From TrEMBL:
Organism from which the protein derives: Bizionia paragorgiae
Family: Belongs to the enoyl-CoA hydratase/isomerase family.
Gene3D superfamilies: 2-enoyl-CoA Hydratase, Chain A, domain 1
Keyword field contains Lyase: yes
Protein name: Enoyl-CoA hydratase
Record lineage: Bacteria, Pseudomonadati, Bacteroidota, Flavobacteriia, Flavobacteriales
Gene Ontology MF: a single term: lyase activity
Protein's GO biological process: fatty acid beta-oxidation
Pfam families associated with the record: ECH_1
């Protein structure tokens, strides 16, 4: 696939998607969101891809937000559509993928950038990363799920303060808040992501996808997460991975999961 705003690479079971607009600090314009949708969809459907990384090009930014120049003239209707389309194509889409998505936060993750990181299944960051939801400083609110996912991750009080002040927190504060799982120097960030992906890839990809569904169910209105867990737990017993995993354990050998 020929992309203008992103790069994709596959190596050792990992598809890395890199937002590549460094002169605009990788801001998310409409075209980039559409390309990201296609790239995430293709990676999720690719049987060889066991983990997806999302990151930004350059050493300064993961993503500095939605592209402000694109929506500055929008009216009420355009604004609502922007949020709805973005959530559908990218943010909800990423959260519900069956392949694990790790946000590799290599610099500023602001507005839509932090929202993309939060829609990913978990986040790691470099020491230079800075995170925030600055929307109210522009007279708007987070529209790509930020008002919902930030309180889920850091608690309502911290989320309210971050949203109201429009301020940025540094990587270590983000780790204290539980917003990112690990913080390392920039040059150690990708090696750490690969190390974590290596651990994930040793396990059953089918079971992992069912676990994602079950964990996400906790955050969906009108869905009983415990019931989802029971259903997905039961479904595991019909998979080849389950047969292989339990047989390998009983035979005291390493499992070689077929991913089915
Ligand atoms: N949308 C559009 N363009 C953006 C952008 C965004 N969200 N964030 C950065 N850019 C562009 C700048 O306009 C600038 O472009 P130019 O060189 O053509 O003028 C370029 O990226 C570099 O940004 P700059 O502001 O010069 O870098 P800086 O190091 O001085 O500041 C930030 C970095 C992240 C603090 C600053 O760019 C910023 O505040 N960005 C907006 C963050 C934001 O409010 N995001 C939420 C959007 S809803």
């Amino acid at each position: 696939m020929d992309y203008q705003n992103i790069l994709t690479a596959f190596n050792n079971g990992i598809t890395t998607i890199t937002i590549n607009r460094p002169t605009k600090l990788n801001a998310l314009n409409k075209a980039t969101i559409e390309e990201l949708h296609k790239a995430f969809d293709a990676a999720d459907k690719d049987a060889d891809t066991k983990v997806i990384f999302i990151t930004g090009s350059g050493e300064k930014a993961f993503v500095a937000g939605a592209d402000i120049s694109e929506f500055a003239n929008f009216d009420v209707s355009n604004g609502g559509q922007l949020a709805a389309k973005g959530q559908e194509l990218l943010f909800d889409f990423v959260e519900n993928l069956s392949t694990p998505v790790i946000a590799v936060v290599n610099g500023f993750a602001l507005g839509g950038g932090l929202e993309l990181a939060m829609a990913s299944h978990f986040r790691i960051a470099s020491t230079n990363a800075k995170m925030g939801l600055p929307e109210v400083s522009l007279g708007v609110i987070p529209g790509y799920g930020g008002t919902q996912r930030l309180p889920q991750l850091v608690g309502k009080g911290r989320a309210m303060e971050m949203v109201m002040t429009a301020g940025m927190i540094d990587a270590n504060t983000a780790k204290d808040y539980g917003l990112v799982n690990h913080v390392v120097e920039l040059e150690e960030l990708m090696p750490l992501a690969e190390k974590i992906a290596g651990k994930i890839m040793r396990n059953s990809s089918v079971a992992i996808s069912k676990a994602i569904t079950a964990v996400n169910a906790n955050f969906k209105d009108g869905v009983n997460g415990y019931e989802t867990e029971i259903k997905e737990f039961g479904n595991c017993f019909g998979t080849e991975d389950f047969k292989e995993g339990t047989t390998a354990f009983l035979e005291k050998r390493k499992a070689n999961f077929p991913g089915k």
